[in-house]
């Protein structure tokens, strides 16, 4: 009896001491937390978190307001529970990088009935063991096998979206959620979903409803404790929903287990499903059935819901930024050739711009917008506050990503924030869409690959137009970042002819040019065109174009001097002078040869280009002479032969000159996407290097490309410059605004602009775009259809039909451009061009066969306009109404 009394007494004393210790720890912890600033107290029970009667959107906005007001740290408390809210990258690093702070906060206890202690909610040795089992399932060699599934499910998603085309908008969230659930099911679980059965449909619905239950409980502290929650109506609803979810995942596990063979893991004969790894671990005694279900529940939820919202936000942002959408599609063309081609793992890796867009979307809208941890030891924050062990901390990823001290103009969508040179000095924990440290997201590479695949697949088939925008959506608090009312986007079928590589072949009309240009880049087709385009594209990379600015400036100086000598005249006919300027720039930049126009050959070339144009126009209007045999009887036949000799002799002389002096170019490796050269790069050098090293082009091929580029690179740009000067002269207010912009950018008007200076001249760029709208240098093109086409107006055009695409008329369409004859550069302000059809403006064509030199032309136009307007005031003689 005495012994029992002693034992009971000892237990009672220990219990009292334990309670005293816990109370003491709580008092100390609270003491330090009370030193941290935060919103004022509302009531004794709800503290400063009176969220129980607030809408999810109001809660989200309140958190953002407090983050801005109390940066870099603030305290919230409700009842007896206090949380520290972390906002700075330095504190993120302190907490996330240490394994001592791996335990998730009590918020995650809400998920335990559903996810139990899977990878998301477990900690300590159990978490480490599970992480070790599952990590191999996301090795890059395994991820490569999943691309086929991503492509297949993307194709299914595209078909669903295709059926919705024509509607004012589509809420993408439900269809994208179904896509990601199917993708995670087939890749990680090895199970195909069709969403025809009630169980599959109910699973999706149950996840949404369960999130609402958790939010209801989260902001009602009396429901934190199971003893109270057991009698709440929401508890019964949660149990019903969890049963639905567990029933679904149990069926997934049982179905896969029937087909599972342990030998498949050892020999890797099949695509590796994460679920198979768990079965293998079970066979080795590392996990039991309950543990498998925990991980399947966790990955089915996390692997589809977070990715679904990331895809949805990405599509919205891409729809809102036409220039970004166009650049992604252009990158797809460069990587895939045919944008409808299903990308491989290697090709997805090459899509660097698309990756930057996804990263920027995840910065603006991180799927997991905050995470909660329990401190495993005392921490001193960067702002000097002491946080005791066992403190609850919330790390607000959303606010970190919108910090203006880290990201200037944080609400602006700018993929170039993630160029290597722009990331170099950024804090390593300033961007954590997949968390960071030991507990970072195990599936982040899986997610990025899935995002790249589905976005490229959608953009290959549709043009996205915004309905919901960052300004109109309402963000809410949820298990993942969501909007209050979905995300609506308008889907248009990507243009039928220009965007489809099956219609790349030029029509018979271009046979007129064959005697001159043969089958260069302008006139060739099929594999030959693809090869030539691949050779030449890197020569127009922005890093190469920067080297040409000095040539543009030098030749502009010479043009200005020519104009100065004629200033005393009533007017100057600029055409011939400008044509000479553009001919000199294209030969010096692209061919590496300087022209002076002192020789008979150089003067003769200019005249020959004019003469050949008149000859081809005659043949075009007398269409029977297009045929080469009938052309033998044309009155222009002998003049054409004589003129062609002049043109070919000129380009042969250019090639011969350069061949004697050119330096070999370092061709691109798999890691490089541009050519390397210590001296200024000439396109002709690339062709000569390819001829001597790779054997993919012969001397005849080089002549074809030189003829093509000398003609196209000077004549089209000369026309654009001439029309630009006329329109600027005709609109004094535009001329004044351009000059004002030059003063702001250059400081001194006479300063020669650099590449970066020209990039900053946004008003001048809009002016040039409007000139090219009114007077596109290439005012129509002609194609031969490679397959049947159903037009928007319902006509069927059979394969092999010749079609003419009239850019001039598209550009003057009053339905697209109100008051179309009016010269208005502000048509090209971002807000005015946002909802315009992406194929409503085509001065450089569009699609796979768009103009390879369009950036070259824009830079040349800007450089020459700068030089001319720095030296002259233009007054109109010819005007749009007189020409």
Automatic annotation (TrEMBL):
Belongs to the cytochrome P450 family. CDD domains: CYP4. One of its GO terms (molecular function) is iron ion binding. It comes from the Eukaryota. InterPro entries: Cyt_P450 (IPR001128), Cyt_P450_CS (IPR017972), Cyt_P450_E_grp-I (IPR002401), Cyt_P450_sf (IPR036396), Cytochrome_P450_Monoox (IPR050196). One of its GO terms (cellular component) is endoplasmic reticulum membrane. Gene3D superfamilies: Cytochrome P450. Heme binds at residue 851. Pfam families: p450. Keywords: Endoplasmic reticulum, Heme, Iron, Membrane, Metal-binding, Microsome, Monooxygenase, Oxidoreductase. It is a peripheral membrane protein. Its main location: endoplasmic reticulum. This is p450 domain containing protein. It is found in: Endoplasmic reticulum membrane; Microsome membrane. The keyword Magnesium does not apply. Its cofactor is heme. May be involved in the metabolism of insect hormones and in the breakdown of synthetic insecticides. PANTHER family: CYTOCHROME P450 4C3-RELATED, CYTOCHROME P450 FAMILY 4.
């Amino acid at each position: 009896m005495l012994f029992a009394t002693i034992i009971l007494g000892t237990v009672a004393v220990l219990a009292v001491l334990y309670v005293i210790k816990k109370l003491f720890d709580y008092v100390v912890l609270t003491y330090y937390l009370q030193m941290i600033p935060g919103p004022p107290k509302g009531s004794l029970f709800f503290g400063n978190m009176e969220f129980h009667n607030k809408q999810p959107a109001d809660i989200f906005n309140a958190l953002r307001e407090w983050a801005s007001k109390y940066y870099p740290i603030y305290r919230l408390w409700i009842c007896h529970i206090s949380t520290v809210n972390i906002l700075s990258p330095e504190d993120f690093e302190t907490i996330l990088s240490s394994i001592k702070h791996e335990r998730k906060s009590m918020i995650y206890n809400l998920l335990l009935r559903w996810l139990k202690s899977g990878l998301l909610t477990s900690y300590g040795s159990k978490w480490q063991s599970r992480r070790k089992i599952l990590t191999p399932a996301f090795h890059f060699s395994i991820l490569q096998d999943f691309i086929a599934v991503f492509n297949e499910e993307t194709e299914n998603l595209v078909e669903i979206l295709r059926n919705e085309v024509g509607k004012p908008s589509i809420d993408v969230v439900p269809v994208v959620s179904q896509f990601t659930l199917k993708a995670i099911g087939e890749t990680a679980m090895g199970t195909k979903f069709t969403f025809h059965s009630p169980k599959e449909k109910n699973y999706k619905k149950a996840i949404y409803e369960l999130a609402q239950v958790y939010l209801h409980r989260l902001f009602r502290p009396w429901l934190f404790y199971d003893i109270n929650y057991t009698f709440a109506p929401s508890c019964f609803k949660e149990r019903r929903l969890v049963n639905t979810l567990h029933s679904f995942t149990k069926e997934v596990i049982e179905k896969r287990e029937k087909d599972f063979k342990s030998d498949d893991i050892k020999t890797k004969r099949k695509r590796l499903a994460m679920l198979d790894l768990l079965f293998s671990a079970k066979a080795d005694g590392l996990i039991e059935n309950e543990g498998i279900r925990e991980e399947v529940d966790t990955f089915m939820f996390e692997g589809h819901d977070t990715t679904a919202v990331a895809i949805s936000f990405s599509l919205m942002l891409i729809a809102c930024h036409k220039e970004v959408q166009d650049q992604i599609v252009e990158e797809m063309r460069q990587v895939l050739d045919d944008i409808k081609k299903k990308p491989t793992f290697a090709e997805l890796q090459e899509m660097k711009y698309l990756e930057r867009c996804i990263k920027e979307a995840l910065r603006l809208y991180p799927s997991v917008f905050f995470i909660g941890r329990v401190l495993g030891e005392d921490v001193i924050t960067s702002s000097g506050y002491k946080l005791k062990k066992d403190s609850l901390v919330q790390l607000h990823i959303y606010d970190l990503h919108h910090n203006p001290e880290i990201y200037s103009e944080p609400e602006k969508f700018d993929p170039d924030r993630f160029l290597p040179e722009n990331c170099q000095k950024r804090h390593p924990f300033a961007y954590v869409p997949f968390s960071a440290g030991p507990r970072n997201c195990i599936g982040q590479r899986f997610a990025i690959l899935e995002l790249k695949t589905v976005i490229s697949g959608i953009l290959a088939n549709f043009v996205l137009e915004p309905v919901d925008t960052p300004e109109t959506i309402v963000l809410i608090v949820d298990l993942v970042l969501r909007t209050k009312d979905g995300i609506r986007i308008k889907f248009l079928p990507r243009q039928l002819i220009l965007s489809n590589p099956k219609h790349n072949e030029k029509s018979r009309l271009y046979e007129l040019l064959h005697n001159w240009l043969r089958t260069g880049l302008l006139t060739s087709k099929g594999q030959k065109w693809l090869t030539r385009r691949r050779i030449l594209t890197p020569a127009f990379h922005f890093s190469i174009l920067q080297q040409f600015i000095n040539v543009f400036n030098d030749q502009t100086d010479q043009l200005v001097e020519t104009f100065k000598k004629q200033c005393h005249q009533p007017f100057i006919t600029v055409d011939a002078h400008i044509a000479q300027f553009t001919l000199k720039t294209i030969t010096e930049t692209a061919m590496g040869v300087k022209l002076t126009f002192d020789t008979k050959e150089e003067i003769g070339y200019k005249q020959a280009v004019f003469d050949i144009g008149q000859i081809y126009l005659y043949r075009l209007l007398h269409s029977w002479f297009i045929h080469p045999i009938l052309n033998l009887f044309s009155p222009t036949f002998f003049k054409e032969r004589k003129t062609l000799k002049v043109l070919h002799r000129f380009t042969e002389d250019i090639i011969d000159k350069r061949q004697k002096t050119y330096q070999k170019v370092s061709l691109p490796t798999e890691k490089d996407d541009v050519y390397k050269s210590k001296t200024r790069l000439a396109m002709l050098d690339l062709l000569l290097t390819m001829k001597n090293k790779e054997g993919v082009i012969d001397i005849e091929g080089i002549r074809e490309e030189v003829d093509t580029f000398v003609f196209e690179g000077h004549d089209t740009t000369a026309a654009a410059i001439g029309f630009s000067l006329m329109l600027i002269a005709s609109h004094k207010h535009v001329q004044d605004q351009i000059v004002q912009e030059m003063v702001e950018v250059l400081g001194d008007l006479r300063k020669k602009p650099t590449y970066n200076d020209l990039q900053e001249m946004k008003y001048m760029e809009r002016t040039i775009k409007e000139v090219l709208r009114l007077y596109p240098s290439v005012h129509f093109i002609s194609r031969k259809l490679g397959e049947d086409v159903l037009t928007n107006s319902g006509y069927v055009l059979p394969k092999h039909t010749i079609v003419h695409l009239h850019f001039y008329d598209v550009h003057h369409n009053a339905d697209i451009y109100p008051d179309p004859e009016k010269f208005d550069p502000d048509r090209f302000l971002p807000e005015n061009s946002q909802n315009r059809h992406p194929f409503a403006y085509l001065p450089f064509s569009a699609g796979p066969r768009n103009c390879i030199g369009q950036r070259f032309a824009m830079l040349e136009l800007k450089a020459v306009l700068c030089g001319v307007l720095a030296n002259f005031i233009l007054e109109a003689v010819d005007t749009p109404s007189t020409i």
